[in-house]
Amino acid sequence: MRNIAEYIARERVLELAAETPADAIRELFQPLAQSPLLAVPADFLEAVLQREEEDSTGLGMGVAIPHARPVGLSDLCLCVGRSRVGIDFLAPDNARVHFVFLIAAPVRPPALYLQVVARISWLMRNNSLRQQLYQTSDVDELAEILMAH
């Protein structure tokens, strides 16, 4: 299973101020907006927002994984946000989302996206790790813990 540290940079780990899923996605998009990885950043943002509007990416356990596969992307990139108050992503368990993982994944290989989502799901099912991530005092510590896994 892939280590998500390969795809996270410290500047892509944020404390979210957003109150809605769309605002959380826009906030997490900001570090990617200037990235040379995305050929047309606005198209990626539009695709993620449209996907979220059609079907929630809230998984339960306080986690959401909004995503899109923009054409021309050569490698997966990941932004992570933590919301102290939680955001209503219409998750199946009705729990507010505290951790949002925004993924820009290349079309090929399709397995890469699935491997990263599987790793995130595996990590976030660990109650003690999820609590540790929630209770960290700042995003530097949050990034450090995530990048160790």
3D architecture notes:
There is one protein chain. The protein is an alpha/beta fold. It has one domain: Mannitol-specific EII, Chain A (3-Layer(aba) Sandwich). It is built from five helices and six strands; from the N terminus they run βααβββββααα. Strands 1, 2, 3, 4, 5 and 6 form a six-stranded mixed beta sheet that branches.
Relevant terms:
149 residues, alpha/beta, Mannitol-specific EII, Chain A, six-stranded mixed beta sheet, 5 helices, 6 strands
Q: Looking at the structure, what is the overall shape? A: globular
Structural class: alpha/beta
Output the helix-strand order: EHHEEEEEHHH
User: Gap between N and C termini, in Å?
Assistant: 11 Å
**What is the level-2 CATH architecture name?**
3-Layer(aba) Sandwich
Mean model confidence by pLDDT: 92
Uncertain parts: none
What does the radius of gyration come to?
14 Å
